[in-house]
Every structure is written in C-alpha cells, then in structure tokens.
Amino acid sequence: MAAESEVLSYFEMCQREGTSPQRGMNFRLHGGHSIVLMSVRPNSPYQDEVQEEGAVLIYEDHDHPRAAEAPNPKSLDQPEFLPGGNLIENGKFDKGAQEFKAG
User: Fold this and answer.
1) What are the residue ranges spanned by the domains of the chain?
2) What is the model's pTM?
C-alpha cells in the first residue's frame, strides 16, 4: 500500500493496483482509494505540481471537451456533471472533498 503522499511512476502504480487507468482522475477506483495521474515533466501540457513536500497537490484537471463554444479547451472549466446528470470525475473529487471537510 502506498503512503498517502507517495508519488509513484505509472508503471509502479499499475503493478500495485493491478490495473492500467487511462483517465487522469480516478475517484475510488474499484471502490477503493482514488488515483490522480499527473506529469510534472517540463514539456507536459498541464501545469500540475506537488508542493510542500507532498502535502499540496496543484492539479490542472481535465480540459473542457473541444467544441465550437470552446475552441481552446483550456479557456473553460470542465462542468461537474454529464448531460444526463451524473457527476464526472472532477465532480466526484469535489463532492468527496466537500464531504471530507464537512466531517
């Protein structure tokens, strides 16, 4: 089991989890803990970073789907809900964080 603030390579994570997640955010994967995939490489398209010795995660999140109303996907926030009303991954993470804060 990884420590709460442990950062793993993708290969290490796949070996430990027994799965190969493709989404950047994976809320309660298989009913368990959550996984955030991120890149801190200089050429990464996302501005993700880890601060304060792993205590703070700055995560850019998913881009808004490319569409006529959003020719630049980074110019709009991704919605919390799918058109059918279900939460998307960032909505699930937000709800989980709000529930945690509320006790």
Assistant:
1) 1-60, 63-103
2) 0.67
